[in-house]
Prior knowledge:
This protein is of the alpha/beta class. The chain is built from five helices and five strands. It is globular and about 30 Å long.
Amino acid sequence: MPHSILVADDNPVTRETLSRVFNAEPDYDLCAQASNGREAVDLAIKHRPELIILDLVMPEVNGMEASRQLKEIMPDVPIILFTQYPDLPKALPVEQLPIDRVVSKDDAFDLLAHVKSLLLG
């Protein structure tokens, strides 16, 4: 059975690109897409994904606040912050954040490897 993934990004092109990537992989199923952090939390509660990918900067609720809410609801679900700010881990230590991994959008080709490592341990 494929691993379910939720993607939240306010950019429709990014969401569509990630959708294509995960739908092309037989081991993964994109269970939901959100355009803001509030929608991401609601869809995560509804679909119970095995992994969540959040953009940092989104309307209504940003990725950091959404990840805090999601970790309270489902603490064992890995969260990847997929951001255009590649220096974020240097500014804020990841171990102090409510996320499991930060992946720069500049390194988008590495995203699938990060997903695999988090889901397979």
